[in-house]
Fold this protein.
Amino acid sequence: MEYDGTVMVEADGLSMRFNLGVEKSFSLKQWFVELGGARRKKQPPFEALRNVSFTVRRGEVVGLVGANGAGKSTLLKLVAGVMKPSEGSVRCGGSVCPMIELGAGFDPQLSARENIYLNGAIMGYSRAFLDSRFDDIVAFAELWDFLEVPVQNYSSGMVARLAFSIATQTEPEILIVDEILSVGDAAFQAKSEEKMLSLMRGGTTVLFVSHSVEQIRKLCSRALWLEHGVLREDGDCETVCAHYLAASGL
Amino acid sequence: MIAALAQSARKYGFLLSQLISRDFKVKYKRSALGMLWSLLYPVLMMCVMAVVFRGVFRFSAPGVSYLAYLMTGLTLFNYFSEASNLAMSSVVANFSLINKVYLPKYVFPLEKCLFVGINFLLTLLPLYAVILLTGTGLCWQHLLLPFDYLCLLGFTLGMGFLLSAAAVFLRDLFYIYGIVLTVWTYLTPIIYDIRMIESGTLAALMKRNPLYHYILFARTIVLFHETPAPRQFLVCALSALCVLLGGALLFRAKQDRFIYYV
C-alpha cells in the first residue's frame, strides 16, 4: 500500500437539508387547496448532515458507522456526486466508483448478456472494456448457463452476483461501498469479500458503509461515526467502533 | 463549451446507444410482428382517419391526394407527440438510477427523442409508399426534408427538456400534457386544411405553432413539389433553436434540484 499522503477526498463543512414535507408532495391539488387559504404547516427542513468535514488520504480504508438515518448514505452520495450539498464542498482527487445500490441499472426484461453492456455503460465503462472483461464478469458471477435468460427470471441472489461482478471490474482510485458485501450465498459472500480485500490491498481509497461493525473492524483502518447528521468521532477504527458500540448499548 | 460537449458525447455516446437499443428490445419483446409494427401502425392510423374524415366528414385537400396530405402531417406530428411524451416521463422514470449513480441527466430526454427518431425514420417507409401509390410523385426537393426533420428534432428535444424538468416538480403534468396533446393535435392542420378556418384570429394563432410550420415545409415539398420560401426555412430553424435553447437552459438550471423530489 502506498501512503504518499495525497488527499483523495476532502469534505469541507458538508451540510445537507431536505424539505421533506414540502418537496416530496407538491401537486396541483395541494396548490389549489392552498390558494383557498389552507396554509400547510411549515415543516422545518430535515438536516441529514450538519457541518461534516474530513479528509481521506490515498490508500485509506475508511468505515462509516452510525444508526439508521444518521446520514451515512447521504454522505456517500455527496462524495459520489449523485447529490450536491446544501452547504460546503467535497472534492475528489481521482476517479470514483460508487457501489451504492448494485444493479440499479438492470432492465428486468433483458438477458444477462444485454444487461452486462447496459449496466456497464451506466457505470461508465466503454464498449471495448466490456468486450475484454465479458468473460471475467460471467465467470465471477458463475452465470454461464443463464446468459440468455431475462434477468426478471433470476433469483435475487443471482442478480446481486451479476451486479457485484460488473461493478468490481475496474480498479477505481476511490471506491464507495454501501452495504453490498452481503450478497449471494455463503460461498459467494466469501468470494466477494476476497475481491473487495484485493481491491483494497491494491491501494484503492475506500469509503465503506456497513451495519456490521465486525465487517468494518475487519476491513477498515479508520472509522467515522455519524450521529444524527453530525460527525461524532473520527479516528482509529477500533476506538471509534468501541465507542459506537458502547453508545448503542451493546 | 464545444470541446466539453464533444468530450461528453464521446463519454456518454456508448451509454446513449445502450439505452436506445434497450428501448428497442423491450418495445418489441414478445410481439409476433416486432419491428413491423413501426411500419403498420402509421398506415392503420391513416386508414382509420381517412375513413372517418374523408369518408364521413368529406374533408379534402384541394388539388392533392388527401391520403398523402394526411400521412405527411401524421408522420411528423406523431413523432412529436410520442417523443415529447416519453421524454417527459424519462427523468422521473429513471429516478432510481439518478439517485444512485452520477449520470448527466440530459441523457434521458435526449435518449427518448433519438429512440423515437429512429422509429420515425422507419415510418418514412409507409409515408413514401403512400406518396408513390397515390401518384403524388417525387422531386429533387425531397433532399431538403432532412433539414425539416432536424428542426422537428430540435423543437421536440427542447420541449422534452422543458417537460421532463417540469414533470419532476409537478407530477400532474402527466395528465395535463395528455389533454394538451389532444388539443394540439386538433389545432395543427393535420386532418384539415388551414384555409378551412374562417376566423382570421384563430388562423393567425395557429400559425404561431411551430409544428404547423414543420408540417407546412414538408407538404410544400411532398405535395406541391416546390422549394419552400426562404422565410419558411428561417421560421423553422429559429423556432427550433429557440425552444431547444430555452428547454436546455431551464433543464440545466433545475437539474441539481431533481434529487430532492425523488
Q: What stands out?
A: Chain B has ten helices and no strands. Chain B has one domain: 2-261. Residues 104 and 114 of chain B are 16 Å apart (CA to CA). The interface with chain A takes residues 11, 14-15, 17-19, 22, 25-26, 29, 96-103, 169-172, 176, 256, 259-261 of chain B (CB under 8 Å).
